[in-house]
Amino acid sequence: MEQPIFTTRAHVFQIDPSTKKNWVPASKQAVTVSYFYDSTRNSYRIISVDGTKVIINSTITPNMTFTKTSQKFGQWADSRANTVFGLGFSSEQQLTKFAEKFQEVKEAAKLARDRSQEKIETSSNHSQESGRDTPSSTRASSVNGTDDEKASHGGPADAHLKTENDKLKLALAQSSSNVKKWETELQTLRESNARLTSALQESAASIEHWKKQFSVCKEENEQLLSKIEELEEQCNEINKEKERNAQLSRRLQELELELQDKDLELEDLRKQGEIIPQFMSECESVSQKLQAAEKRNKDLEEKVRNLRTEVEESKHRQNNLKTELKNFLDVLDGKIDELHDFRQGLSKLGVDN
């Protein structure tokens, strides 16, 4: 089973296969680059995935060398993949850590190869010793004596050697059968590991995609909350405007009542001017008062018209604000439904995982 032992982020490049000189970007941005250790095969790999695309899958061998070509760039050649990989890091410290890990993994791969060779040599020596023992026993059975002696004394020894030879053949056949079975199991494990690695990569890419979607929705939600606060402030201003309109309406009613009183007063003065002609001097005074009252009445009428105009304008602004608020609430309901659908999709993904 493969497990990550070191992870970093870098821009990935590959050498141009046509020119073998220019670097071709393999990733649009910095991606995750990891060292993986396979405990089953005792091997090390460098793997990097951009979205759902595997851009690095390099098995490290003792013959590989990682070269620093600048303060933030390094490269190594992979003969199996027939290419050269390059990594661009954001700092010299990250490049140094990656190079040190490469050397460490390279030494571990060399040690694993040496141990494997030792096991092969030990197994080969055991096989050679077993091969030498069998002929010597056969030769021992044919030494000394004439043909008659061989006939009289060599029979039991030959039977014993034949029995031992049959046992060795049976053991060899069983060993070959076990090797084939182990090779089949190893191939099955490799295929299963490949499928699991692919599924893990797809799952990681899907999680990254949903994280980005969640981040976008979170930003939209914050923007909507900010817009709601602005609308609440506008609503408070609308309420204040309503209060001012109510005050203007009450003032208008008071002015209308006052105007009615003035009309009644004017009517009374007119009647008094008709009934008492002898009080002409007083009539002149009343006439002056009447003129003043009429002038004041005109002023009041002008004020009433202005107040009515202000009331109409206030009602018009209030209707516009209500229309904007209704449109925004409709948009907000749509965004809330989309956020609800997104949360349900995220919940289903969590259940599937």
UniProtKB/TrEMBL annotation:
Coiled-coil spans in chain: 165-324
List localization entries.
Cell membrane; Cell projection, Stereocilium; Cytoplasm; Postsynaptic density
Gene Ontology biological process: behavioral response to cocaine; calcium-mediated signaling; G protein-coupled glutamate receptor signaling pathway; negative regulation of calcineurin-NFAT signaling cascade; negative regulation of interleukin-2 production; regulation of G protein-coupled receptor signaling pathway; sensory perception of sound
List the biased-composition ranges (Polar residues).
Answer: 122-145
Q: Where is the signal peptide?
A: none
- In this chain, the stretch annotated as Disordered covers 109-160
InterPro entries for the chain:
Homer (IPR045027), Homer_EVH1 (IPR044100), Myotonic_dystrophy_kinase_coil (IPR014930), PH-like_dom_sf (IPR011993), WH1/EVH1_dom (IPR000697)
Basic and acidic residues composition-biased segments: 109-121
UniProt keyword Nucleotide-binding, yes or no: no
Recorded hits in PROSITE patterns, A to Z, give:
WH1
Q: Which residues form the WH1 domain?
A: 1-109
> Sorted alphabetically, which Gene3D superfamilies does this protein's record hold?
1.20.5.1700, Pleckstrin-homology domain (PH domain)/Phosphotyrosine-binding domain (PTB)
Q: Which GO molecular-function terms appear in the entry?
A: actin binding; ATP binding; G protein-coupled glutamate receptor binding; metal ion binding; protein serine/threonine kinase activity; synaptic receptor adaptor activity
Keyword terms of this UniProt record:
Cell membrane, Cell projection, Coiled coil, Cytoplasm, Hearing, Membrane, Metal-binding, Phosphoprotein, Synapse
Q: Which cofactor does it need?
A: Mg(2+)
An annotated GO cellular component: stereocilium tip
Family assignment from sequence similarity: Belongs to the Homer family.
This one is known as Homer protein homolog 2
Q: Which organism is it from?
A: Sphenodon punctatus (Tuatara)
